[in-house]
């Protein structure tokens, strides 16, 4: 008489995997995940960005150009080692869509992904291989409480995963809550940023190479104001990186 064999976990594993796949496909059909850049539905093998946007967004390749347009913005204003932006930013374009979702709709993982992509590019430039600390442009505590996170800090975390550097989020501080910089002239932007930032523990940054990061650079007034304070630290070397450069 044949003996009855108890079913093992592996007997049910494949059907359960198929069920999870079908359920995931059904949920995606009703509530599709969209690429934050092009707004197309993500396929099953895509995460955060679709494959097309992942590879075809407008890269600047500034890591290969020491005298790029971002670096030139600081000539005669800040003594920097290097400057970089990952993408070009055009009004109404895919990069703007992506940054908006990242900055205002809680998609923090976008920042981590973009930081990782940028970090892999920066590894190709020996200047960025000497970075000790990555410091995001700080938000005022009131805005941080409202938004719940600092988008530049998310970008910094992704960079740090590739550059073997330490992220410092509480050393450079914003002491004054400023109004939006939108529609201000370059001079007005700089005046708006005057004496807004301070370094809380300068002794930690003595003789260190600091990478100052932000989401978008337009006139560079915010980064300039931060850089002025950081460069007061003895022996500090400063570089700059942003997600996008607004032409």
UniProtKB/TrEMBL annotation:
Entry's transmembrane regions? none
Give the record's keywords alphabetically. Answer: Glycosyltransferase, Transferase
UniProt domain Phosphoribosyltransferase: residue ranges: 152-244
List the Pfam families: Pribosyltran
Q: Which GO terms describe its molecular function?
A: glycosyltransferase activity
Name the family the entry cites: Belongs to the ComF/GntX family.
Q: Which PANTHER family match?
A: DNA UTILIZATION PROTEIN YHGH
The name under which this protein is listed is: Phosphoribosyltransferase family protein
Task: Record the organism.
Answer: Mucilaginibacter aquariorum
């Amino acid at each position: 008489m044949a003996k009855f064999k108890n079913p093992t976990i592996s007997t049910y594993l494949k059907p359960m995997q198929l069920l999870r796949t079908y359920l995931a496909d059904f949920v995606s059909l009703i509530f599709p995940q969209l690429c934050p850049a092009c707004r197309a539905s993500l396929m099953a093998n895509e995460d955060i960005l679709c494959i097309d946007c992942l590879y075809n967004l407008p890269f600047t390749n500034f890591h290969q150009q020491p005298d790029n347009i971002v670096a030139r913005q600081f000539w005669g204003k800040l003594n920097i080692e290097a400057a970089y932006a990952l993408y070009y930013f055009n009004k109404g374009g895919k990069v703007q869509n992506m940054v908006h979702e990242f900055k205002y709709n809680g998609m923090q993982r976008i920042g981590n992904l973009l930081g990782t992509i940028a970090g892999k590019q920066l590894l190709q430039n020996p200047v960025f291989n000497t970075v000790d600390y990555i410091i995001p442009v700080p938000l005022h505590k009131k805005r941080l409480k409202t938004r719940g996170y600092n988008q530049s800090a998310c970008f910094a975390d992704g960079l740090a995963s590739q550059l073997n550097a330490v992220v410092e989020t509480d050393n450079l501080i914003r002491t004054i809550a400023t109004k939006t910089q939108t529609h201000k002239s370059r001079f007005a932007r700089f005046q708006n940023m005057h004496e807004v930032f301070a370094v809380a523990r300068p002794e930690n940054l003595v003789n260190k190479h600091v990478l100052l990061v932000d989401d978008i650079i337009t006139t560079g007034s915010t980064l300039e104001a931060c850089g002025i304070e950081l460069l007061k630290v003895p022996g500090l070397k400063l570089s700059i990186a942003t997600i996008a450069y607004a032409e």
